[in-house]
Amino acid sequence: MYMTTDVLVIGLAMHLVVVAVVAPGLRALSGARRSWVVKPPYNASQIASRNTWPFTMAGLGGALVMSLPATVFEFFGREDLRQLWWNLPFIWLAMLVIAVSCFWWPARLAPRWYRRWAARGGTRDVMPWTEEEIAAIRARPEGRRRRGLLRDVQRCRELTATQITERAGGPVP
Prior knowledge:
By secondary structure, the protein is mainly alpha-helical. The protein has one domain (5-168). It has helices at 5-30, 53-75, 79-86, 93-101, 112-119, 131-139, 144-168. The longest helix is centred in the N-terminal third of the chain and has 26 residues, at 5-30. The protein is elongated. The mean pLDDT is 82.
């Protein structure tokens, strides 16, 4: 059994990267923060008209999670299993998700709130929060979560108003 410090450190670093990549993507997809759908793309390589970075982050996280067994095989000195793992076709599916998400993401594979937003038009000038959802947020008890949701609602209102103004050719405040 090979137990080198390098492999152990790389394995630990990969686990930390997985958490750092997956957590923001899942948080964005959960619907607790929706302002990302009305913001311009973060990444210059983003070609899609809608922001798809959380889907890209989820794909990247999936790719990293699927590569973790190869690190374990390396840790135990099983080069044959490591090579076999990388030759399995399903390992590369996450890479396909990452590549496709830079161009397009099907709304039917998105969370329910995103599908409803896409059905209402799904552009940067369409508010991702419905009035019913905003009323439900306001009915929540005071607390950090309620404040965060209301902050996101306000941010979405500002961003959609800016997009509408820009589309109309007027001044941007």
